[in-house]
Write a structure and sequence with these properties.
Blueprint lengths: L1 H11 L3 E3 L7 E7 L4 H14 L3 E6 L7 H8 L1 E4 L3 H13 L3 E5 L14 H9 L3 E7 L4 E8 L5 H11 L18
Parallel strand pairs: 1-7, 2-5, 2-6, 3-4, 3-5
Antiparallel strand pairs: 6-7
Helix pairs in contact: 1-2, 4-5
GO molecular function, one term: 1-acylglycerol-3-phosphate O-acyltransferase activity
Pathway: Lipid metabolism
Organism: Marinilabilia salmonicolor
Length: 182
């Protein structure tokens, strides 16, 4: 499936894959910008071609019949906006031999000025790195910007992430605001 996914993404859809996925077994993968449902489609194909074990975090509202079947097949698990959910995700990671949790820290498709912080707390609780993934529609490339191996200070991490996304163009740029407000 990895070769087919890569062929679809690169040869049929014309995307460039930038950088290799790091040799790590567990992580929190943030994937931005997220301004369109197309981001999830391209992101899914990108992740499939990597050959890693991953789960998407998706709004729990999407898990109603009949969409719940689609999201489960897609590899999603429902998100609950509670502190216990951070512990739940950390435990999922800790009991797995290999698992990467993928989420969009913007939390929605509409413009936000401050990203959700759950990704940071999940990574800290599970003691895993944060993989900074991206999709750039202007350059038509998708990949990994950086791995933050030791996220110890949320302010520093958020500023670094904002800098990493500063040159990335969303499908709908007017809806993308990298983590500028900390």
């Amino acid at each position: 499936m990895t070769k087919i996914s890569r062929y679809i993404l690169v040869n049929l859809l014309g995307w460039k894959i930038k950088s290799e996925f790091p040799n790590i077994k567990k992580s929190i993968i943030i994937f931005a910008p997220h301004t369109s449902y197309w981001d999830g489609f391209y992101g899914k194909i990108y992740l499939m071609q990597l050959g890693i074990n991953y789960k998407f975090l998706s709004k729990k509202e999407f898990f109603k019949f009949p969409l719940n079947y689609f999201f489960k097949i897609y590899g999603s698990i429902p998100v609950s906006k509670t502190k216990e959910y951070i512990d739940y995700v950390a435990e999922l990671i800790n009991i797995s031999n290999e698992l990467h949790i993928v989420l969009s820290p913007e939390g929605q498709l509409a413009k936000t000025i401050r990203w959700k912080k759950g990704y940071y707390y999940m990574a800290v609780r599970a003691t895993v790195p944060i993989v900074v993934g991206y999709i750039d529609y202007k350059k038509k490339e998708i990949g990994i910007k950086k791995v933050i191996y030791n996220p110890t200070d949320i302010s520093i991490v958020r500023k670094e992430i904002a800098q990493l996304y500063a040159d990335v163009t969303a499908k709908y740029p007017e809806n993308f605001s990298p983590e500028l407000k900390v």
